[in-house]
Design a protein that fits this description.
Rossmann fold, globular, five-stranded parallel beta sheet, alpha/beta, 194 residues, 5 strands
Amino acid sequence: MTRPDNSQLILNAFKRHLETVSRSEATVLNEVSKAFAILEEIVKNRRVLFICGNGGSAAQSQHFAAEWVCRYKKERPALKAIALTTDTSALTAIGNDYGFENIFARQVEALASKDDCLVVISTSGRSPNILKAIDKAKTIGLKTIALSGQKGAALKNLVDVAILVPSDETARIQEVHDLILHAWCEAIDENFTS
């Protein structure tokens, strides 16, 4: 059996990353800016940002919340953000009593208020727990933003702003999601530095 050329495999991953970033730059910047306008209002009005996702997107949710609560690059006031992926007692109790599809919606119901914001991160855009969280958020009156991939087109009709990375490769979608989250953090820093 011939071993693969690891250098070529790694190079191909870099190339696919660059291609996805380039296609995203050409297609999603308008939505990224619209979403940032919502986030800017959340900060100005001292509302709460809630973030959720599954798997790698759960980790991104936690990362984004930490950047808000702590800081990104510059000194600025702490911002209100909660990753709905971190409370293992709530997650397991809700999953056990109400089903895994309700782990985020139940927390939104308990913690969120009208005019807060929910950011959902889902490469597929079809996870039942994400869809239920959006539905609950809309019922309460939250602004909603979705980060997804090209298969998440149905989210456009469910949220205030849907940002669909033009790829169906999970790793490349997540890499662009990270870029978007960091771009938002950088813009928040520039607009709200003390």
